Amino acid sequence: MYDEIRIGDVVRMRKPHPCGSFQWEVVRLGADIGIRCTRCGRRVLMPRSRFIRQVKALVQRSTSAEEAATAALPHDSRAAHDDIKNT
Ligand SMILES: [Zn+2]
User: Fold this and answer.
1) DSSP codes joined into one string, 49-71
2) How many Å lie between the centroid of ligand 1 and the Cα of residue 86?
3) Residue 65 C-alpha to ligand 1 middle, in angstroms?
4) With respect to CATH, is domain 1-63 assigned 2.60.40?
5) pLDDT at 75 over 60
6) By the 8 A CB rule, do 32 and 49 touch?
7) pLDDT mean over 8-26
8) How far is the CA of 64 from the centre of ligand 1 (A)?
9) What is the whole-number distance in angstroms between the Cα of residue 11 and the centre of ligand 1?
10) Number of helical H runs and strand E runs in the chain
11) What is the pLDDT of residue 4?
12) pLDDT of 24-66, one tens digit each?
């Protein structure tokens, strides 16, 4: 089951949004889960227990952890490396 919710996860819900989209992106975690419709951008808050029941499948796992790791690399060393290549 889908119980490890992360910001940035894209999930497929059992019922479509009125706009026709089944896919939502997780934008807020807490007692209530905040999700944003990937088609029309509308945000909805719902209790975590209800959210879990409504989710049919995890479409795309958030990669924010990997992005954070990449961003943490020292930019100075990369720039220095490029200078060496260019000369
Ligand atoms: Zn929508």
Assistant:
1) HHHHHHEEEEEE---HHHHHHHH
2) 48
3) 27
4) no
5) no
6) no
7) 96
8) 23
9) 13
10) 3, 5
11) 86
12) 999 999 989 999 999 999 999 999 999 999 999 999 998 865 5
d(CA 53, CA 37): 17
Three-state DSSP class for residue 86: helix
Instruction: Compute the distance from residue 36 Cα to the ligand 1 centre, in Å.
Output: 8
Distance 12 CA to ligand 1 centre (A): 12
In the chain, where are the structural domains located?
1-63
Select from 22, 20, 4, 17 the least CA-distant residue to 59. Answer: 22
The pair of structure tokens assigned to 10 is 């894209």
- CA 57/CA 66 separation, integer angstroms: 22
Assigned token pair, 46? 């719902």
The predicted pLDDT at position 2 comes to 72
Question: For residues 36 and 24, is the Cβ–Cβ distance under 8 A?
Answer: yes
